[in-house]
Known about the structure:
By secondary structure, the protein is mainly α. It has helices at 2-12, 17-25, 31-36, 46-59.
Amino acid sequence: MYEQKWSKAKKQHKNNLLIKIFGLIDKRVGKRTLARIRDTMQMESELIQYFYRLRCEAEGIK
């Protein structure tokens, strides 16, 4: 479900970093979803990658 929302948010707000960051730090996004979107993070900006790594670290995901 989050992957669909993530894809939709990426399409609608390609350049809006704040929306992507808020999506990553939203507590409703679970560990499995974070693990699933790992590959797409390589195509994101360094700022988005930073918040992704920060969230994964907080959740204990390697």
